[in-house]
Amino acid sequence: MSRVTKFASRDPGPTARVVGFVAHLRENGLRLGVGEAELALRGLAQTRAVTHQDCRRTLRAICTGCKDEIERFDALFDAYWLDAGRVKQKVIPKPQTPINDSVHSNRDRAEQDAQSGLSGSATAPDDGQGEADGDGTGKLIATMQRQLSRQDLRDLVRPEDIAAAEKVALRLGAALRDQRSRRRIAACKGDRLHFRKTIRRSLATGGEPLHLLRKRRPDRQRKIVALCDVSGSMSLYAQVFLAFLAGLMRADKDADAYLFHTRLVRITEALRDKDTMRAIGRMSMMADGFGGGSKIGPSLQRFADTYAKRFVDGRSVVMILSDGYDTSPPEELSKALQKLKKRGCTIIWLNPLKGWKDYAPIASGMAAALPWLDLFQPANTLADLASLEKELAAL
Amino acid sequence: MTWTELQTSLGGDGYVASDDLAVALQLALSLGRPLLLEGAAGVGKTEVARALATTQDAKLIRLQCYEGLDASQAIYEWNYQRQLLTIRAAAEDGETGKSVEARIFSRDFLLERPLLAAITQDTPPVLLIDEIDRADEEFEAYLLEILSDFQVSIPELGTITATSRPIVILTSNGTRDLSDALRRRCLYTYVDYPDRATELAILKARCPEVEAQLAEQIIGFVQTLRKEELEKVPGIAEMLDFAAALMGLGIADLTSSPDVLQSTLTTLLKTQSDQAQITRDVAARIAGKAA
């Protein structure tokens, strides 16, 4: 490492350079004040740093404040001190996180597909090699086979979306959770005095209540259980909803998440993975059949019979994200929801189609479900989900 | 003392510090700044303070933080019972109110809690504020006053200034974001799981009786295990327990008996799902790789 930056000859000396380095860090988003520059100089003198490794360690201990900054520090240090040999106006471009407004479109996916050459474009037929006909007449054929093609959900969901969804999920969670109990329990920082405990404690001091003990109303946590439909008809909205699920799992450690199409899969454990992309990867491993048919009734029935017994109680909010297009009889859906409702939970149905003009819940499945729902709302973008906050708080 | 000397003397007390940590500790000592250590549970953050206290020949004062920790638990509290007894006794003796008041609000009636105790020592102690992220933010603000001024204001007594500046070490597991103000006042180091060579050195320092070949195997096993998807990743203390368990059972080779290996895994895997995940076969496979 001999590529040490050569500073200009009119450079006034090491002090100015260290101050310049601190300014360089500050420009790159590290929160450093004047005091840190002075401290850095004193620190360098104290450790008698002669090699650049020693300098690096010293400055790192002084100038960083969290793990994130430590990870960025080395690059910033190299840029300033071990540059190719000029005084450089230190600009390390920060990775821009583009905010994607059109989260409900599947444009990215189409692009990815086109790049990897997996499919023809959406409007033109394949080039004669595949099964598509050139003349544009085709027919729908039913198949008894399950859709087993695996779709890598990592193409669909990006970390930025999850970060945005996490914020929304946090707010929704807070809106749902803020349920105060009517009772009071002992607490260090309560708003009222806990007389019984205070008097009991005062016995030790001869009846003088020296220790005032307090009580408060405890928060009663409500648990969100989210069930997301990932059948073919929902694939357009999957990106938003999956990001929302991933965000919800990260924001709320009591939440529970499931995917269903023709089967039901619990994805809570997979989404809890600390590494976001690995979490999505694990989810896509479990969700084979993604984009296939939908059997909402049987899936919910299965949920009510199995997982709901363990995870759903009177303090749960069951959130169903689906368009209600069901291939199984509507009675099954109705029966499943009735059973679920008996557990005392609140059921919310978020339907991406409801946002459409002139939408009426005439899909037989949806019509059968309506009587059991506490809230039926449109949602097809993250913004829609965010705007639910008020409705959820009112529940 | 240079940081390499500090590193060596810490090593003599059985604590193998990485270069980064040694430099940070040396800076904390020489600049008199508090040192904030972050990292996963079980990487030896608390142990740093203990080792530092031994090498510096200083007293270790420890404040374990928890939710709802308040000034009366952390800084000082009046000895109410004793005050009350004194008042009762004074009433019988016919002492005047003024003199009683002056007496019961004196240093004799003050119970020193860790923070006050740390600044009133004759020689500088090592003050360990453990798991600061568990305490709430109001307490953090309290702490800031003490960490910057090294003085405590007691309304009845006045301000007590430090007779000696303690060496302050704060640890955090990152369950909550600490305030920027606190981070700014501290030097910072992130303590990660040690690499293979460092962990081997730790094992040799702590359990010198483990044979070289077995030590290699143990470290290889634990390092591979950390890469598995576990809920609770085994830390250094767990590794030492594991080594001690193997020594106690008189095992010289990890691959020799999969059953015994599986039963000693209770020292490393601390949740039910982790234990279910690392089955006998998986453990044997990892041990085979490590050998």
Automatic annotation (TrEMBL), chain A:
What Gene3D superfamilies does the database record attribute to this sequence? Answer: von Willebrand factor, type A domain
> Keywords on this record?
Membrane, Transmembrane, Transmembrane helix
Which CDD domains does this entry report, sorted A to Z?
Answer: vWFA
Keyword presence, Lyase: no
Is the Transmembrane helix keyword given for this protein? yes
Source organism, top-level taxon: Bacteria
Instruction: List the biased-composition ranges (Polar residues).
Output: 113-122
Q: Which residues form the VWFA domain?
A: 221-382
Start and end residues of each stretch annotated as Disordered: 92-137
Q: Where are the transmembrane segments?
A: 224-249
PANTHER family given in the database record: BLL5662 PROTEIN, BLL5662 PROTEIN-RELATED
> What protein am I looking at?
VWA domain containing CoxE-like protein
Species of provenance: Pelagimonas phthalicica
| Source lineage | Bacteria, Pseudomonadati, Pseudomonadota, Alphaproteobacteria, Rhodobacterales
TrEMBL record, chain B:
| Pfam families assigned | AAA_5 (PF07728)
Tell me which residues make up the AAA+ ATPase domain. Answer: 31-192
Q: Give any GO molecular function from the UniProt entry.
A: ATP binding
Extract the InterPro entries matched here.
AAA+_ATPase, ATPase_dyneun-rel_AAA, CbbQ/NirQ/NorQ/GpvN, P-loop_NTPase
The UniProt entry's coiled-coil ranges are none
Q: Which PANTHER family match?
A: MAGNESIUM-CHELATASE SUBUNIT CHLD, MOXR FAMILY PROTEIN
Instruction: From the Swiss-Prot or TrEMBL record, give the protein name.
Output: AAA domain (Dynein-related subfamily)
Q: Which organism is it from?
A: Pelagimonas phthalicica
